[in-house]
Amino acid sequence: MDKLLIIGAGIGQEPIIQKAKARGVHVTVVSIPGPYPCFGLADDIVYKDIFDRDGIVEMARKKGITAVVSDQNDLMMPTVAYVAEKLSLPGNRFDTVMSYCNKNSFRNLCDKVGIPSPKHIAIKSEDVEVCNIVFPLPWIVKPADSQSSIGVKKVNNPEDLNAALMVALEKSPTGSAIVEEFFEGREVVCEGFINEGKYYLLSFADRRYFNLKGVMIPSQTIFPSTLSETIRNRIVGYEQALANSTKPSFAITHSEYLVNELTGEIRIVETALRGGGVYISSDLIPMATGIDINDVLLDKSLGIEVNVDEVFKNRSDRASAYVCFYLPEGIVQSVSGVEELKALPFVRKAYIDDLTIGQQTMPPTYKGARKGPILVQGENRKDLEKNILTVQETLKVTVKTDAGDICNICWS
Q1: Cβ atoms within 10 Å of 353's Cβ, excluding its own
Q2: Spatial CB neighbours of 151, under 8 Å, sequence gap ≥ 6
C-alpha cells in the first residue's frame, strides 16, 4: 500500500486527502494540534510543527512513507520538498521551492530571468531605522515569507513606513520584509502546471477586491479572464521562462500579475509552486477547464506515470468563480437565503454555515477574515456573471453596528 504524507491539516488539504483515500492510499497527516478539518480524514496523525523538517523526515522514514504532497498553501511547500529530497521521493528540490516562497528571493529570480517585477528593496529587522527607498510613493509593504495578505499594507506617506514595516516584520517567520513600488493595473491570476520543466497553461482569471481602506483582500476570482490574447501570450512566456530557469520536476503553479492595459506594461506579483487557494486548484480549475489537476498532482507524487500532453488535449472552456463577502462590524441581526442559495443549480459549494444571529463580527484585516467562499459555475463568462448576481440577491444578512445602524452584507 502507498503511504502518503500530507504536510498540514488545514482546509486546503481536504480535497487531495479525499482523492487519496478514494484510491485506498494510507494517509498520514502532520501538523501541530488544533481544530483542523483534515484530522478527521487521515488514517494516521503526527503532531509536529511543519517547520521541524528534520523531525518530520525521521518520522516519515520510520513509518515507511512512500510519497509526500500538499496543496493550496505556501507555508507547507518547502517542507514537502525537503522530505521528498531527503527520502528520494517524487518531488521538487528544496532550493527550487525556496526560490519561490521567499518574496525577496523570488524578486531576485525574476530580475535574473528578465521578468518585469515591481521595484523593490529587502528589509531585515535591524535595517528599519536606515531604510532608504528611492522609488516613488505609494509603497506596498509585505512580510517576505507570509501569506493570505497577512501583514500587507499600502503606504502613502513616508512617516507611515516604519509602522507598516514593524507589522510586516512581526508577521514574518524569518524577520524579513519587502517594500515594493505600487503599480497601477488590473490583477489577473494565471494557473498552470509544470512537468519536467515544461509549462502548461490551465486558465487565466480576473481578480476583484473589496473596497477597503488600507488592506487588500480579494472578493472574487473569476475564470476565464477577459484579458487580451496578446497579454496572455506574454504572461505564458514569462511562466515558461521561470520554469526553464528553476526546472521543477512537477507542480501546479499559481501566479498573480498586474496589467496596465493602457500602456501594455506588466508586473509579476508572485508565483507559487502549488495550486491556488480558496479551492481554485481543487474545484474552480476542474469546473472551468475539465482538467482535475489535483489528480495529476497526486499521480505524480505517487510516482505514477502521467501523459500530461494527453491530459491537456482534453481541456474545455467553461467558467467558474469563488465569491466572498464580509460583514460590517457589529452584531448579526438576521440571516436568510442560505438554503435557497445552496439549492441553486450553479452553486457548487457554499461555505456559509458559520452565519448565526447574535454573532459578533469584526472588520476584515486579512484574507482569512472573509466570509465564504461560494463556488459558482457557468457555461461562459456572461452566464457566470449572471449567476453571481443571483447568488448576491439570494443571500441576505443584516448587522447592527455599535452606532445602532442596520447594515447589509458587503460583496464589494
Answers
A1: 8
A2: 141, 142, 143, 167, 168, 170, 171, 172, 177
Average pLDDT for the chain = 94
Q: Compute the distance between CA of residue 56 and CA of residue 148 in angstroms, rounded to an integer.
A: 25
Task: Compute the average pLDDT of residues 367-377.
Answer: 93
Take residue 152 and report the three cell numbers written for it: 500587507
The answer to whether 268 and 117 have CB atoms below 8 angstroms apart is yes
What the block records as the C-alpha cell of 291 is 482538467
pTM of full prediction above 0.85:
yes
Among the listed residues 114, 97, 104, 111, the one whose alpha carbon sits nearest the alpha carbon of residue 180: 104
Region of 63 please: left (phi>0), alpha (psi -120 to 50) or beta: alpha
Cα 150–Cα 154–Cα 158 angle in degrees, nearest 5:
125
- 145 versus 240: which is more confidently predicted? 240
**Is the predicted pLDDT of residue 129 greater than 60, yes or no?**
no
> What mean pLDDT comes out for the span 227-238?
97
pLDDT at position 127: 64
> Which three cell numbers mark 101?
516562497
| Distances in whole angstroms, Cα of residue 350 to Cα of each of 217, 278, 343, 409 | 19, 12, 10, 16
